[in-house]
């Protein structure tokens, strides 16, 4: 790149029109018609350069005697300082002496001479009459000069001219109408001086002209850039230079000089660097302009910087208090800051992003600390929100005043309520580090752990552990330990949680004794349920809590703590096949008041209800968390979605299962301890949808040494992997995983046959491998378990497994009974598998007609459920039985289940939901659920459309009832039915 030009070498571009106007005014003045021209513009717009060009190219050329000066800001209160500067040069002084010598008799010469030679305090001590005499004497002196040649007075930075000198110029212009006089004033529009009103009056005169300097045009920017950098400029680069400099010549020159030093290329790739380099130049230029401002303006600018981000809502009173400036001067200072482009027009926002930080960086650290502390105090006294004040407190190196700690704690609570846990963590860490109240520190750690649990649960455990050690009161320790246990669940540190919670619970029992108060009884219940819930997670602790639960007397459920204990006990009881009615009763009582029941307890109760085929109740309980993710813990939200996925999978709605699984996968937050359940339940759905490779891919993502320790994840992982291998045709691997699933359940004391019904698939795989004796043995074990948990689904699966392991008419009889029982359960996909098995058994006996009937039902149910794998398998048997492929033009009505068809027929006749429920002996909630599915399947949105679509055809299936499939179809868990 070429060497940059010196400052004097920069050409004056884009000012030809202004020079022409000034030249015309000079000609008029030369001809004896006095003129005033005010050249106006902000700093850097080229005002001084234009005045220099006028002196050089216009006034000297026309033989004017030129008096010129620049008004310094420091002299604006010194009377006649500008007049003395104008007449100071030797040439002018000699002329003045000459005139005075020739006209000593005139008293005006003496008056002028006295003003020109007065001390720096001249004007301050003169009597009022003498001011007029001085004005007259100076006028007479100027008039005498103009008898010899035209006079031009060029004054730059006139906004800072002292008042007496400006009064003289005004006096001179009023009396020089026919004299050869030209007065050219350069005025900055981005700052005001003391004589602003005088200037405004002079500009209003009819003989005055104003020349406002605009920004440079793009062509001028391009020419200057070419001079400074390179003749070959990309248009995008030039446009970037124009945008950054805003056409300000001084700013543009600084930008170009910096670009030249930085070696930035002038092609399109260098355009991006212009903004980066220019940002610093713009900020530096703004700071230079700020330095020129009076002290009150700089003080207000500093106050705005300290309050940056909220100063727009701070009144002049508070802003003035922080700046140490009277409120009446604050508005004037803000106007000045906007004129020099430090603040944005009409607001208190800075014109440049980094300007605030640059201003603060120029202030000594102690002063910044003082200002920030003062700002926080002012805002606190004015009643500002805690989070607004906390922003200033976070920047302090100490919290010397007691109210400051309270503000940080309140701000953290506000952030937690709006789920801004990262912000709350920052406030609380600061409060713990700088707070001087030792007694408050454990409570601060508990609050900190509550926010950390969402993103860094291991760090949350460390804070809770310290808080427990800092606390001596057993009851307070128990409360903290309960939070420790819940956090250990999220952090996947269940053994550590059981150790800490168990130890604190034993200590609390000793303190409260045999007859605890109601408050102590509730506290004991709260810690008890946390211990039970924490211990159910991993293999090393599940046996301990099962024994503890069996020895615990079930509470009544009248308080939140008791309901939470009942919730966990219901799930543990369901695992051990305690009476179904008892399990449902405990879970129902536990979820009677959902808002005051914790996430983890809700999940246990929902699981118990799911295993008991209480689909509606389970769906509602899961939904309390799943559909309100913003109101619950992130981990609880993810597990609720996965749990509802298992629920939908058990009812056979795989379309909903896939959607819910995707929601669960997407719901995890960064840094959260990863539960593998979303991948596992989604893998189960992929398998049923005949995509075992995708299922294997998801399961590969969750493999690891810790997964074997996590009870739920490990058994469902084995079940999902076994089903995927089965559908893929790898029967040996499938059997290995399914049998391992059974062993994992037994090790944890789980005897419920529908928790993870591995045995149904194992029977089918063993049969396919020709190991019929083993198949019958596993089927018999499954039947024994099903009898201990006599829900329709469990009994139906037991019959399905035994029928699969049998042959001939015995197989048909068992499978017919399986179809009958499963038709009364909500397990529609299991029913479809039973229909397929029954059709295959009838085909082997030679009854092709009966086989086709059941295989068609199986394909229809599998289609509605979304099980592509079962549709494929059933279709193969259907073809072998002589069936033809179903035409694709089926009516949408054919997609309705029998229960849905019955509801639709009654609804089409105009009956209300309550009337339908009474007619079918079901709940109104069940009717609403069926109508939701009916509208979705038929593609209608109102009840009146049903009559047009239902021709009154008889129900399609044999009289089995579908049961409630769930109101909102979502993701599911491994069904107990076979996959191949």
Automatic annotation (TrEMBL):
Every HTH luxR-type domain range: 889-954
GO molecular-function terms, A-Z: adenylate cyclase activity; ATP binding; DNA binding
Domain of life of the organism encoding this protein: Bacteria
Name this protein carries in UniProt: Regulatory LuxR family protein
Biological process per Gene Ontology, one example term: regulation of DNA-templated transcription
Keywords noted in UniProt: ATP-binding, Nucleotide-binding
SMART domains linked: HTH_LUXR (SM00421)
């Amino acid at each position: 790149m070429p060497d940059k030009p010196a400052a004097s070498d920069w050409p004056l571009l884009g000012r030809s029109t202004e020079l022409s106007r000034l030249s015309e005014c000079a000609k008029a003045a030369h001809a004896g018609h006095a003129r005033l021209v005010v050249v106006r513009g902000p700093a850097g717009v080229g005002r001084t350069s234009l005045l220099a060009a006028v002196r050089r190219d216009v006034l000297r050329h026309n033989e004017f005697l030129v008096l010129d000066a620049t008004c310094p800001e420091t002299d604006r209160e010194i009377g006649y300082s500008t007049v003395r500067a104008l007449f100071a040069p030797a040439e002018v002084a000699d002329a003045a002496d000459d005139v005075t010598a020739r006209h000593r008799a005139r008293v005006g010469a003496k008056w002028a001479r006295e003003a020109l030679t007065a001390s720096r305090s001249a004007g301050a001590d003169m009597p009022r009459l003498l001011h007029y005499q001085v004005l007259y004497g100076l006028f007479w002196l100027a008039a005498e000069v103009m008898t010899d040649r035209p006079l031009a007075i060029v004054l730059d930075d006139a906004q800072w001219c002292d008042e007496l000198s400006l009064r003289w110029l005004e006096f001179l212009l009023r009396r020089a109408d026919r004299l050869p006089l030209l007065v050219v004033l350069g005025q900055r529009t981005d700052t005001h001086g003391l004589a602003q009103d005088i200037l405004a009056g002079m500009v209003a005169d009819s003989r005055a002209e104003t020349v406002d300097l605009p920004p440079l045009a793009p062509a001028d920017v391009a020419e200057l850039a070419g001079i400074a950098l390179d003749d070959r400029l990309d248009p995008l680069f030039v446009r970037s230079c124009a945008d950054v400099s805003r056409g300000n010549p001084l700013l543009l020159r600084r930008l170009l000089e910096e670009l030249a030093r930085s070696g930035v290329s002038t092609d399109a790739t260098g355009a991006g660097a212009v903004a980066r380099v220019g940002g610093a130049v713009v900020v530096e230029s703004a700071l230079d302009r700020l330095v020129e401002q009076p002290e009150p303006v700089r003080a207000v600018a500093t106050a705005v910087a300290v309050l940056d981000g909220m100063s727009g809502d701070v009144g002049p009173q508070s802003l003035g208090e922080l700046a140490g400036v009277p409120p009446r001067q604050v508005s004037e200072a803000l106007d000045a800051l906007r004129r020099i482009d430090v603040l944005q027009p009409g607001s208190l926002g800075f014109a440049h992003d980094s300007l605030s930080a640059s201003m603060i960086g120029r202030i000594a650290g102690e002063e910044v600390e003082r200002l920030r502390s003062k700002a926080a105090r002012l805002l606190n006294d004015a009643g500002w929100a805690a989070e607004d004040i906390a922003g200033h407190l976070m920047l302090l190196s100490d919290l010397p005043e007691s109210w400051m700690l309270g503000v940080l704690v309140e701000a953290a609570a506000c952030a937690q309520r709006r789920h801004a846990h990262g912000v709350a963590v920052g406030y609380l860490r600061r409060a713990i580090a700088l707070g001087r109240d030792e007694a408050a520190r454990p409570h601060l750690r508990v609050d900190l752990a509550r926010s950390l649990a969402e993103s860094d649960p291991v760090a949350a455990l460390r804070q809770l552990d310290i808080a427990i050690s800092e606390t001596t009161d057993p009851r307070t320790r128990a409360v903290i330990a309960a939070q420790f246990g819940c956090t250990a669940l999220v952090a996947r540190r269940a053994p550590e949680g059981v150790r800490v919670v168990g130890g604190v619970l034993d200590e609390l029992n000793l303190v409260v004794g045999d007859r605890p108060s109601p408050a102590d009884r509730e506290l004991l219940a709260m810690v008890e349920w946390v211990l039970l819930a924490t211990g159910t997670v991993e293999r090393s602790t599940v046996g301990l809590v099962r024994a503890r639960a069996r020895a615990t007397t079930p509470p009544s459920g009248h308080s939140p703590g008791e309901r939470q204990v009942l919730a966990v006990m219901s799930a543990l009881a369901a695992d051990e096949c305690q009476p179904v009615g008892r399990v449902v009763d405990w879970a129902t009582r536990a979820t009677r008041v959902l808002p005051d029941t914790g996430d983890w307890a809700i999940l246990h109760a929902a699981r118990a209800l799911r295993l008991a085929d209480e689909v509606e109740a389970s769906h509602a309980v899961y939904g309390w968390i799943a559909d309100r993710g913003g109101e619950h813990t992130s981990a609880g939200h993810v597990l609720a979605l996965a749990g509802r996925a298992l629920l939908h999978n058990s009812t056979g709605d795989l379309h909903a299962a896939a959607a819910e699984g995707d929601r669960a996968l997407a719901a995890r937050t960064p840094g959260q301890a990863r539960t593998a359940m979303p991948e596992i339940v989604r893998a189960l759905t992929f398998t049923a949808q005949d995509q075992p490779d995708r299922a294997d891919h998801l399961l590969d993502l969750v493999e690891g040494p810790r997964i074997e320790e996590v009870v739920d994840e490990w058994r469902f992982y084995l079940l999902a992997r076994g089903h995927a291998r089965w559908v893929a045709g790898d029967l040996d691997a499938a059997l290995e995983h399914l049998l391992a699933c059974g062993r994992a359940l037994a090790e944890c004391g789980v005897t419920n046959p529908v928790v993870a019904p591995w045995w149904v698939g194992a029977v089918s795989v063993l049969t396919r491998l020709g190991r019929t004796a083993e198949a019958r043995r596993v089927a018999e074990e499954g039947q024994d378990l099903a009898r201990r948990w006599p829900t329709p689904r469990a009994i139906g699966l037991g019959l399905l497994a035994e029928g699969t392991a049998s042959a001939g008419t015995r197989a048909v009889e068992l499978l017919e009974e399986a179809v009958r029982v499963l038709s009364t359960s909500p397990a529609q996909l299991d029913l479809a598998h039973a229909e397929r098995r029954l059709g295959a058994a009838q085909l082997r006996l030679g009854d092709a007609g009966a086989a086709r009937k059941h295989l068609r039902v199986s394909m229809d149910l599998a289609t509605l459920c979304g099980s592509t794998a079962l549709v494929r398998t059933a279709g193969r048997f259907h073809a072998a039985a002589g069936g033809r492929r179903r035409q694709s033009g089926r009516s949408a009505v054919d997609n309705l289940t029998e229960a849905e068809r019955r509801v639709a027929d009654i609804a089409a006749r105009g009956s209300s939901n309550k009337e339908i429920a009474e007619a079918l002996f079901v709940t109104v909630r069940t009717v609403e659920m069926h109508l939701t599915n009916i509208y979705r399947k038929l593609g209608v949105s109102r009840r009146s459309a049903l009559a047009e679509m239902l021709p009154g055809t008889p129900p399609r299936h044999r009289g089995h009832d579908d049961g409630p499939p769930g109101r909102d179809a979502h993701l599911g868990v491994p069904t107990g039915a076979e996959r191949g």
